[in-house]
Amino acid sequence: MYLILGCGDVGYSVAAELKSRGAELTIIDRDQKRVNHLKQMGYNAVLGDFSLPEVLKEAGFERAEMILIMAPDFSSVESALGAIGRLKVELKIDPVVVARVTDEAEVEDVKRLGASDALPSSQLLARFTLDRFETLRGMMREKRLRALIQELVGGRLAIVLQTNPDPDSIASGVALKRYAKAFGLDSDLIYDGVVGHPQNRALVNLLELNLLEAEKIDFTKYSSFALVDVATHANCSLPKEIIPTIVIDHHSVPSGEVKGRYVDTTIVGANATIMTNYLRYGGIEIDKATAAALIVGILTDTMFFTRGAKAPDFDAFEYLMERVDTDLLNRLLWPTITSDALDVLATAIKNSKLKGGYLLANVGEVKDRDLIAQAADFLLNRDGVTTTFIYGICGDVVRVSARTKDVSLHLGQKLRETFSEIGSGGGHARMAGATIPLTYFGKASRAAIKRELNRVVARRFLEAVGLEKPRQKRKKKAANSKPRTKAQAQKEKPAELPPAQQRLL
């Protein structure tokens, strides 16, 4: 909640901008007429002297996360800061406090008196103020997260990444682990699925990360839990009965589906941007390797600033570039490709079939399941391809990796619907996977299973996306026709039947 102290022309401009964004705010002003007018306009306004602690309490000081002192004179600002300082000690809370000053020379004075930041009147245009508030809101969130982390010290935090974590997810987990450690809380990075793309592997290897597989973890040994780059149980390994303590995600998710003591779902291009700002506002030094990981997270999730990038993404990128090891960054952005990966890619290209923008390829048997995902990523760049669907046998299961550029298709949902009866499937809208145990094929030989893959796997997917007619429906239609006697069947010929019955044969 925002608490605005003083509502002249500048204060009103700020209040109007915040209200237009749906922010909760309360205004305190000394002018009865102005307060009445604000109430008529739908604002929550309180009449009183904001240099008095009791007035601040009445207006909801205890719930305020940011206090904006918009009074035009230094003496009023000074009095308000004195009252705020006393209440912060009394109530043991620490909101972000921003004060308006009339002269640049007063900036350091108000900071010395307790303000988090100061804005000169010459800069207090509403648009500038709003942009500045994005930074101040980040500072406000960081204070809240820091307070929670300090509460959790003594236990151990499980940082759960999204299923099949990408560079943004891995980098965000690394940053949260570093942030928690800075305030005394130890943690582990936990994942499920595969770390498949070369960039993912490069991150893990070059940064010497210790990622723990969820299936080998006893979650009951942890005292707190955090989700990064994922907001719900739907796409991660956290057991459904466990409510996360911390949720930090940049995707748009209905608020009713997100649960946690601390939730930050800021809509930006990359989750790494959010985590960069937590380190930044927490005063935590970002080492060169972590900076490189966060930059890779930002660049890959925004597709080098061509998809969904916001102003904070550019700002975080600029901040990190001043701290990164450029040689390490280049190695992470363009990792080497192994000979095994080239072999699987060659097989995928040779066996690929393109139908309506959908490229499907059977790569046969592979030693490493991650190579299937790499082929799906690479072939999405082929001319005329909107969706890739690559599959093969790995160990005792069939692995599927799919990618898409089609905004009308949610791959995760489609693969879940398509393969849940014979295995499992799911993932993101643009990237998903599926697993089918070989036991589904009964006692069939390995060679027979290979022959069946195209029918069981590829055809199911083509039917699911509407590129082939489902055979089940045709069978159902045939089953609804009237049964004929053996004698009738011998006498009747298809050419002699009415058209409607001919179609049933």
From TrEMBL:
Keywords, ordered alphabetically: Ion transport, Potassium, Potassium transport, Transport
Domain of life: Archaea
Any one GO cellular component localisation term in the record: plasma membrane
Pfam families, A to Z: DHH, DHHA1, TrkA_N
GO molecular function terms listed in the Swiss-Prot or TrEMBL record: nucleic acid binding; potassium ion transmembrane transporter activity
Region described as Disordered: 468-505
Biased composition, class Basic residues, residue ranges: 471-485
Domain RCK N-terminal: 1-120
The protein's role, per its UniProt record: Part of a potassium transport system.
Matching PANTHER family: BIFUNCTIONAL OLIGORIBONUCLEASE AND PAP PHOSPHATASE NRNA
The protein, known as: RCK N-terminal domain-containing protein
Lineage of source species: Archaea, Methanobacteriati, Candidatus Hadarchaeota, Candidatus Hadarchaeia, Candidatus Hadarchaeales
